[in-house]
Amino acid sequence: ANLNVADWDTAFGWGNHALAGYITGFSELNDLTAAVTWANVPEANIPTHTGHVTGGTDLALVVAAITGQIALTSGLAGTDELLVSDAGVIKRMDITVLETYMEANIALPIGQVSGFTDNSTDWDTAFGWGNHAVPGYLTSIPTHTGHVTGDAGLTLVVAAITGQAELTTGLASTDEVLVSDGGVIKRMDISVLEEYLSTNLTGLTFGIQFFISTGADATYIIDQFASFAYTIVDAVAETASGTITLEVNIDTVAVTGISAMAITSTESTDTASATNAVAAGATVDFIFTANSSALGLSVKLNCTRD
């Protein structure tokens, strides 16, 4: 005999078929007197299925199978799936596939789209401003050279200063420098700096000097430093020929030590004493007496800023 012992053992390994709910008998048996059709099967004997179809053939979708589902109104994701008939074959498709198709094949219409807010008044206003490309709007990022003439939010870097031409001579009072005024960048004339230094610096050494070519007696009034106080340290004077007597007065008061300073052709130096302070607004007079042979007087007062 053809004994399929191996198959029997396999079937035995599947377990007791009766436990799985297989039909073991019939409680009612009737002979069919006619062919069973959809029309003559009692409706009560037709089960109603719920849930999702997971597989099978010869299935047909009906409208109720779609409209009866939960509606998705938001939260659509690229990984969500649709059912699509691909040449008559039902397939599933990710939303991303639909996105790719639309980007490649759908041409956006030109004109006013219904369902959107109509801001045509604003559009007409913008059109009235003219072609925006004409004023020279940026179409690319250029490399700028030269000087920045103004704007907000700018930061100076070292190269912006060291890269400029150096001014070594010819500084004028109308030349301008940049200054941070309490953190705000401003421009300032050199004349403003001059005024500040003349008002605030102390101990600054300077000289008052003049030359006289005639031998006639004369008085010279020096007031170019009258806006601040200073101290006369000493006087240095000489003549080309002859003898000259020099006297220096501060507001008509003689400066002790320089009063009646006798000057010959050899350079003479007299140091001022305690009365050498010149107050702001005071007038300094240089009074000299020369004989007929005196010529070419050179006088310099060495001073310090108080």
Radius of gyration: 56 Å
Counted beta strands:
14
Mean pLDDT: 76
CATH topology of the domain at 205-305: Jelly Rolls
Task: Write the H/E string, N to C.
Answer: HHEEHHHEEHEEEEEEEEEE
Account of the protein in words:
Among the domains are: 172-201, no CATH class; 205-305, Satellite virus coat domain (Jelly Rolls). The protein is an alpha+beta fold. It is built from 6 helices and 14 strands. Strand 1 (81-86) and strand 2 form a beta hairpin. Strands 5, 7, 11, 12 and 14 form a 5-stranded antiparallel beta sheet that branches.
Summarize the structure.
The protein is an alpha+beta fold and about 300 residues long.
In terms of topology, how is this protein built?
Elements: H1 5-13, H2 63-67, E1 81-86, E2 89-94, H3 95-105, H4 120-128, H5 158-162, E3 176-181, E4 184-189, H6 190-200, E5 205-212, E6 218-222, E7 230-241, E8 244-250, E9 253-254, E10 261-263, E11 268-271, E12 277-278, E13 284-290, E14 295-305
Antiparallel strand pairs: 1-2, 3-4, 5-14, 6-13, 7-11, 7-12, 7-14, 8-9, 8-10, 8-13
Characteristic terms for this protein:
306 residues, alpha+beta, Jelly Rolls, 5-stranded antiparallel beta sheet
